[in-house]
Amino acid sequence: MNFSQQAINGLVIGSGYACVALGWTILLGAARLVNFAHGQMYMLAAFICWFILTRAGVSYPVAAVASIVAMALLGVVMQLTMNRLVMTQNLTSLMIVTLGFGYILQGSAGLLFGGAPHTMTTGLAQKQIRIGEVWFTQQDILILVVTLVLYAVIWLLLKRTRQGSIIRSVAEDPKLAQLFGIDSRAVYVGVFVLEAVLVAISAVLVAPRTPILTSMGFEEVITTFVVVVLGGIGNVAGALIVGMALGVFTAFFGALVSPAYTTAAIFAVMLAFLIVRPGGLNTR
Amino acid sequence: MTKLDVERVVSKIDRPAEYRRPLALLAVLCGCIAIYLLPAWLGGSTAMYGLFVMIAILAVMALGVDLVLSYLGEVSLGHTIFWAIGGYAAAILSTTWNVNGWVTATAAIALSLMAAALLGLATLRAREFVFSLVTYAAAVVIAEITFNTDALGGSDGIVGIPALRLPLGFAVFTGRSSADLWPVAFALLLLSLLFVARFRRSRLGTEALMVQMNTPLATSSGLDAHRVRFLVFVVSAPITALAGWLYAYQRAYVGPDMFDMYFLTMMLTSIILVGKRILLASTIGVTLLLIQQNYLSIGGDGNKIVLGGVLVLMLVLWPQGLARLLGDIFTMIVRAVSGRWSRVRTSEAASGKRLRNGE
Quick one: B237 and B101 in the same domain? Predict the structure, then answer.
């Protein structure tokens, strides 16, 4: 086994995990919302990007932006549908509603794009960079850089801006926030659109690494869960650390033991962690 | 409509104790016999028996989830594990050692109890979405392990499950086709319903409701909330496992598709459609959904949109389910007929609105 190559692979995989998990982290931490359709939204964003790339013949960035805009619109529709449940903080019903949305998205994607696997080819994924014995693609660098930038921006948004404190106040108590003249509904819509946009960004970046399938949402979401739960619910910095660590773990587990059982191994790590530290990396 | 009226309407469905009266018991008995004979009256074709057996199987499957959802208020997304355990226990034991149905059913119950105990311990302190996340993750992981393990049939699953054989002492029941299996499926559904009806009057059922409605009060009354939650979760598992057990015999095949989102969505939608804490909710819900999928099908992907759409729309528009909605409408009609409608209209509208808001 090439140690440095696996370490690089791990960081790339990990930045992908962290990138996919970012939208969920914000949704959960800043708005106390859960979204079981996250995996299917990831799938749909990847398919929209793939569809535009192959059918319209436009360049990768144009297709990516179109996919992100489409997902933002979908985010608005989803949030408006569940607005009453969100305002009453009916978490159990919300969870089931998003599960239902996920199933609708999966069915719609099946109707629109069929059941066959596809690969999304971007120019960057073919450009390899070799340093000594280690190699990676330009797409890998793009994922890593965008993930770090996104995390920095989101962290600053939540902690250092007025909009961030509005979001956090709504998360604490939507009714009380309304008394102070904050439109909680609009904030929830905004946060959900942010989640949709972030999941779309992660999809157009990460999906080119693997074949895409309309049924992939079910499994895709698992590492996101682990990252969010272990990072400490809504802890942005925690999610980044856990995402990266899980990526490295995945790379080495795949190389040393078996790539087929990596999800199971990640899950075992999560269970062990939950028993020792139910709150994840949260220090509060 | 006052709160009391609502409770009177709901209690008719909600309280099996009412059935103790001999007349009601007779009516229930006649109803059971009628339903048992229904597939024969409806033509008795293979497809008709197949539909009825499937309704019974999926209704029993959903009953396990119903127990957790209605009595703990938690959403278990891991019940597909128990469903698959039932199916795989039947498949592996009957193909490898050719044992009879009692043995495979016992194994299904024992294995699902063990799995539920493990999962229950791991999620003991987890509430709400963490509980759902961990159970969901467990299901995905076990699906992956099943998919990759050759001893469990891998991605191909296990084919050639023999006919269900149940020695009854005086005779041996053997069933292969849906028509043969209908008595077993019907009996399983009845037994599961009786079990849940018994559960809701049991000490554990009452304790579970107390814990769900007011955990601090339950704890201060000397209840161990963790213990109650753990026990309810464990008790719910074998119900779903037995459904999976019969499903394996009916299809003569099991595979990793038992972990499909379809079953998970079906369990939740059937309960949400009719309403929580209603004994027959899963049976009625599954019946309605399967009739759509069999007779009003718009293709596999289209049916997914319908199933997910029903789930979303019910929770957004009538979170109390169809039973409550029909109860409301029924009471309104009764009022209208008895001529009191005009006098109570204003308060009716107000209380109806409050009800729909879940107050």
Answer: yes
Closest listed residue to residue B282, CA positions, set B34, B12, B61: B61
Q: At what angle do helices B261-274 and B79-96 cross, to 10 degrees?
A: 130
pTM, to two decimals: 0.85
Query: What percent of chain B lies above the pLDDT cut of 90?
Result: 33
Regarding whether B271 and B151 lie in a shared domain, the answer is yes
Question: What pLDDT is attached to residue A284?
Answer: 47
- What confidence tens digit (pLDDT) does each residue in B111-129 have? 999 999 999 988 877 767 7
For the four alpha carbons of A129, A125, A152 and A102, in that order, the dihedral sign comes to: negative
For chain A, give every domain's residue range: 3-276
pLDDT band at A134 (very low <50, low <70, confident <90, very high): confident
Number of domains in chain B: 2
Q: Do B264 and A267 count as a contact with CB atoms less than 8 A apart?
A: no
Q: Determine the structural domain holding residue B212 and report its residue range.
A: 46-317
Average pLDDT, chain A: 85
Distance, in Å, from the CA atom of B134 to the CA atom of B118, rounded to the nearest integer, reads 12
- Are A252 and A10 a contacting pair, CB within 8 Å? yes
B133, B311, B319: residue with CB nearest A229: B133
Q: Are B35 and B83 found together in one domain?
A: no
CA A104 to chain centre: 19
Structure confidence at residue A196 (pLDDT): 94
In CATH, what class is A3-276?
A: mainly alpha
Specify the range with the lowest mean pLDDT, choosing from A22-31, A149-158, B97-106.
Answer: A22-31
Q: How far is B129 from chain A (nearest CA, A)?
A: 7
Q: CB–CB of A92 and B73 under 8 A?
A: yes
Same domain, B169 and B287: yes
Contacts of B324 (CB under 8 A, 6+ apart): B10, B275, B318, B355
Q: Is residue B138 less than 8 Å (CB to CB) from chain A?
A: yes
Residues B277 and B223 in one domain: yes
Q: B272 in contact with A at a CB cutoff of 8 Å?
A: yes
CB pairs under 8 A between A and B: 131
ipTM summary value = 0.84
A79 Cα to chain B: minimum distance (Å): 11
pLDDT in tens, B148-170: 888 888 888 888 888 888 888 88
Closest-CA distance, B85 to chain A, in angstroms, reads 17
Contact status of B216 with chain A (Cβ, < 8 Å):
no
